[in-house]
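TICKET: design request
STATUS: open
ATTACHED STRUCTURE:
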């Protein structure tokens, strides 16, 4: 952990963000959607398509050789094309993923805290996400200040108020 760095995501990171979106979708071991299937699904692809837009922002965790090991990013989606965790047009939605071999070592929590700081620094007061309830990530989010605002069959929409 001590040797990990964090840097801002850039347009050059779009392929790695797709990698991490694939991980986020396939968090269930028995789910194995291909990259192609995910990118062909508009409800999933819109978390990364056209990265990066002017109001996109995110962070990349990197190992000592600068290899990316995780990413957390925010995107503003709209009522016309809402994400699973859509709350409103001015509330960006989080996606987070850590490379499998790096999981359970604090990278996700570090990225989450840092990307919330980055959002706060931009003057953003509210952020959202969607998480399938069975994913332990939901407990991480709750521990870091997210609360459930809407529940669906298997998933919750969670919101964090991050304003000062
Ligand atoms: C969810 C994810 C981003 C968390 O990142 P991570 O680096 O593995 O998590 P951390 O090591 O920072 O651990 C965060 C908390 O989750 C707990 N945790 C980690 N792995 C766990 C596991 N397999 N089962 C249960 N809890 C676990 C940790 O114990 C920690 O809590 P604690 O410090 O109170 O004990 C990462 O596991 C991941 O990429 N998963 C697959 C993609 C995904 O699910 N994305 C989110 C979709 S909503």
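STATUS: resolved
RESOLUTION: sequence designed for all positions
ATTACHED SEQUENCE:
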């Amino acid at each position: 952990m001590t040797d990990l760095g964090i840097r801002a995501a850039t347009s050059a990171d779009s392929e790695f963000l797709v990698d991490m979106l694939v991980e986020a979708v396939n968090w269930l071991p028995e789910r194995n959607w291909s990259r192609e299937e995910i990118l062909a699904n508009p409800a999933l692809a819109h978390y990364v398509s056209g990265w990066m837009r002017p109001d996109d922002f995110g962070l990349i965790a990197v190992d000592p050789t600068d290899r990316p090991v995780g990413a957390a990013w925010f995107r503003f989606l709209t009522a016309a094309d809402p994400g699973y965790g859509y709350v409103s047009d001015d509330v960006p939605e989080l996606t987070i993923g850590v490379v499998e071999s790096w999981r359970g070592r604090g990278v996700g929590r570090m990225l989450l805290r840092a990307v919330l700081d980055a959002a706060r620094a931009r003057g953003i007061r509210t952020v959202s996400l969607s998480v399938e309830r069975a994913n332990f990530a939901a407990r991480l989010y709750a521990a870091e200040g997210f609360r459930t605002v809407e529940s669906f069959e298997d998933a919750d929409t969670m919101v964090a108020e991050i304003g000062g």
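CLOSING REMARK: The chain has a mean pLDDT of 97. The helical segments are 14-25, 35-39, 42-45, 107-121, 137-143.
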